[in-house]
Amino acid sequence: LWSSKFNSKSKANLCPDDGNYRTYLTTYFSYLLLFLIGHVRDAIGKRLFPKDYEQLMPHNGYAALNSDFGSFFTRRVKSKLDDCFSRPVTGPPGRTIKLLDRTSLDYCFNFKFTHTITQALNIASYNYLGFAQSRGRCAHAVERDILKSGVFSGGSGATVGLMTQHVKAEKLLASFLGVQDSIIISQGFATNSTTLPALVGPGCLIISDELNHASIRFGARLSGAMVRTYKHNNMRDLERVLRNSISHGQTRKLRGWKKIIVAVEGLYSMEGSIVDLPGLLRLREKFKFYLYLDEAHSIGALGPNGRGVCDYYGVDPNRVDILMGTLTKSFGASGGYIAGSKLLIDHLRRKSHSSVYAESLSPAVLTQITTSMKLIAGKDLDDQSNASNNAENNKDHRSLGEGQIRLKRLAFNSRYLHAGLKKLGFIVPGDMDSPIVPLLVFQPGKLLLFSRLMLQRYSIVVVVVGYPATPIVSGRVRFCVSACHTKEDIDKVLIATDEIGEMLGLKLAKYSSGNQSSKSTRKGKGCFTFWKIEEVISRARELVYDYQID
């Protein structure tokens, strides 16, 4: 099985790709048409049906509750796609997921449940290592802990909310990451948005990747520090921003910055790209800034031991000043963490709003975290008597532990889906080892059709993402691979995507990953060979291992 680790040959084989001018033109025209029709409907509706627009206009002495302009996109554009979003589900979001069927008679403004359930293949959830289960070691450990400790933590960590489970989980997490100490916070978004204000303030500088998550941006604005951005994962542009920022300092005050933090993500959730950590560390040594690394998606999903991008690149985690991550995606739980030096963590325990004011995590959630983390790390569980409860865990995979098996399955599935889609002719950005595999669709109408057809024809649930979560010309499907997916599941996704992509005209790639010695047989489509779906499925191992240099 493949192991997730940095491979320069794999990086070199990824040819850059993009859409053509016709694609961009039609995408802009699609949004322009939607905006034009929406504004016409608003103008007519406000005059003919004023009661339907009361919340958007001043009435009876009250100000408008919602901004007409601010809510326009949600009301007139996103509402057309609402059957593809917020789909109600029941049961655990594992390999498959159960959807509560619904229908709409007014163009997705209101939905009505049909009292039926559709079971579909789930390639939409952040369930990287497959720990979102209702049975197995983790689930049984959580069940026992609920009976023992209940579900309420008792308060914040600064009062009476620090239980023995919290202390054990934080020690285990620090050991797992290879750093001195860690603090667990009850929500991932709040981890970023309250940690940055505790570290920097006015007179400080935050340099942020242009594609950083909203929680980092929100925390940066909340801190009062100056914020500057650089081009996504571009170390040359980051160096330019650093040079200019340091040389000019605080322009109005004519003095240098109190401190500089560069904030990045380990794995970007919309792009599927992995941060250039070695390049960042070289710049850190040169310019002496603090490095803030958000591993919300990379922890547990990258590296031969599942310890994130430091493990992936073989870098000492102590070279990163502030390690942030979430305990949701790979661990099947909730919450976030900050890890690093003991001085850093002690400071955050006193200064972070999430530590002082927010409720601590439930003991049952902490049990899920520690149990799954021990399985990933290959440590013995406190009680091995439950191993027989999960038949899958009893399989002998040549002395590999359950955690290693999950990590290797995830790495194989990620590379197979990514390489397979590129070989079929789709535009697939991001890195081969990323469990997030985006497929560029561009036009909003095609996003809608792709999601509906995948569910209706193949019973596959996917996530579609468009503006404003992405640039207006970069609407995409986002596949989220899991260790619980089998090769047959990935085959099914490739077959469905191939058929629907051909129907919607989504095969726009100019390049194909794989053997560079082969010339393209598709006229005008670049330098490499594109394969038929049958060949992709039959040569899956070649697609995955072709990039290995060992």
Structural features, described:
By secondary structure, this protein is α/β, with parallel strands linked by helices. The chain has 2 domains: 8-20 and 404-545, Aspartate Aminotransferase, domain 1 (Alpha-Beta Complex), CATH 3.90.1150; 140-377, Aspartate Aminotransferase, domain 2, CATH 3.40.640.10. 39% of the residues lie in helices and 14% in strands. It has helices spanning 8-12, 21-48, 72-76, 137-149, 164-177, 188-199, 214-223, 235-248, 277-287, 309-313, 342-351, 353-356, 363-377, 402-423, 444-458, 487-504, 533-538, 540-545; strands at residues 89-90, 96-103, 112-122, 181-185, 205-209, 226-230, 260-265, 290-294, 322-326, 336-340, 436-442, 460-461, 463-465, 475-480. A 7-stranded mixed sheet has the order 4-10-9-8-7-5-6, sandwiched between helices. Strands 1-2-3-12 form a 4-stranded mixed sheet, with helices on one face. A hairpin with an 8-residue loop joins strand 2 and strand 3 (112-122). Helix 8 (235-248) packs parallel to helix 9 (277-287) and helix 15 (444-458) crosses helix 16. The longest helix has 28 residues, at 21-48. It is globular and about 60 Å long. Mean pLDDT is 88; it is low at 383-397 and 512-527.
